């Protein structure tokens, strides 16, 4: 079976003729099929641009099994190649499944994947790395869960082994024992597996297994340097190698503690959290239980309890709780490298994304990546439908229009469970959309404790304002503003004040939420006020269904604006007194606002000399 995380395996297929093999590989690996939308109708995920999609997956560290030519894969990914020690496995498979070629990450799992697929599909694995060919193992790049401390010795050690020398194993690692390496008690080469710090000999390779869980606790706001120094002290005092840390662990009350995440970044390991109940289950194994801690957080030990919980029942506490002024640290050792899927839960993450008007070509790469990484998608049903293939294999949480607060709260509570959630908005997430409500709920304290501790990222999208402007020309070339005509959240008197101020200031104005089935008078009022301050022939853009089927963009004079021609899917942009309409040779009309007023001398606005 493929040892890579099934959720992290992307099976790329470009044509229907490759779907049969793709389906077999999915069955064998548990991965997801990513299909080229111009040739594939249905699969787990669809994409439009092959190169962009491949590079995005590679940059995200996903294992790639591509049913396409080796040369094409190499050319598309080549711009990203930099450090082979961190590059994910990439395997190319022919459409008939006969030829399987590990292109990159051979020692990170690509060779193993190729062998397994070849055996199951009845094909041939084209393994070319010398260590794999002779011994079935790559000593310079160990499997996940192990770190080679002295890679500079790997080449000379492998050369000695290829010349016929034998090796002695100091420590235990299943992947070495299962290899074809020539072991002998008096071997000239030494392969050491240890979580201790030591200086390897010239003919020795030292592997650090990631079997240590570093448990931490600290007061709110403790400096990162204090906690990092304490962690280093705990390791050095026991002679333990930092490379053997598999995870930083703590109580879930500390999920948003910046210092703990700084420690994770310092040691380049994930950070995981446990509930007080789970930590209290370890009370019988604690070296220094504390009633004071129990009274404060509900368990008798945070650092020791978290370390033991991460290592399981076969693990043992090897460094009892140590203290600095404001932090505690403890270390436990597991019987085997830690499995992150079984080690606590991560800090939940919420991505608040704007998908633009809906067309994929107007959706930013960052937004697509965040949606791709998310396991849960929350949004108005229409917005989720616009994502099409990006929703495949993800949990959808659909909401009707008008349930904005329920929608946002649900997304944040899901993230509070340790999930990666994308809250999907049309246009830009921060312009009359859900990003604001996220922070309102945080400030108003209307969420669970877990939801208050999530990490948040807001990613911009093309707003309806920008899309309408681009379709019609360049109406935003000078000062402009946006005004929502909806009085659901803003008093109508305040809206009237803003309309008049914008009219008097001669701003280009984009009206959001111009009308609804219930509201039919606000836009009419705005038109009347504007006609008091700018010419009747002032150009107005009416843009409906932008970026979607049925798109309609018109430019009309302000005097001809009819309310019945506008709906909630229409953006209305009213030009300033200086906005103009011009034509191109094909007869198309374009609206634009000059960057500066053409007649500066003698021009006055409300008595102000320009």
Describe the 3D structure.
- This protein has 5 domains: 6-128, Rossmann fold (3-Layer(aba) Sandwich), CATH 3.40.50; 146-209, no CATH class; 212-342, CobE/GbiG C-terminal domain (Nucleotidyltransferase, domain 5), CATH 3.30.420; 349-462, 3-Layer(aba) Sandwich (Cobalt-precorrin-4 Transmethylase, domain 1); 474-609, Tetrapyrrole methylase, C-terminal domain (Methyltransferase, Cobalt-precorrin-4 Transmethylase, Domain 2, 2-Layer Sandwich), CATH 3.30.950.
- The protein has 19 helices and 31 strands.
- The strands form 7 sheets. It has a 7-stranded mixed sheet, sandwiched between helices. A 5-stranded mixed sheet has the order 14-13-12-16-15, with helices on both faces.
- Strand 4 (63-67), helix 3 (70-77) and strand 5 form a beta-alpha-beta unit.
- Helix 15 (404-416) crosses helix 16 (434-444).
- The termini are far apart.
Summary?
The chain is an alpha/beta fold and 610 residues long.
CATH superfamily of the largest domain: Tetrapyrrole methylase, C-terminal domain
How many strand elements?
31
Q: Which shape, going by the Cα principal axes?
A: globular
CATH topology of the largest domain: Methyltransferase, Cobalt-precorrin-4 Transmethylase, Domain 2
The order of strands across the largest sheet is 3-2-1-4-5-6-7
CATH 2nd-level architecture of the largest domain: 2-Layer Sandwich
Biggest β-sheet strands, sense, barrel:
7 strands, mixed
- Enumerate the spans where pLDDT stays under 50 for 5 or more consecutive residues: 3-7, 599-610
- Gyration radius, rounded: 31 Å
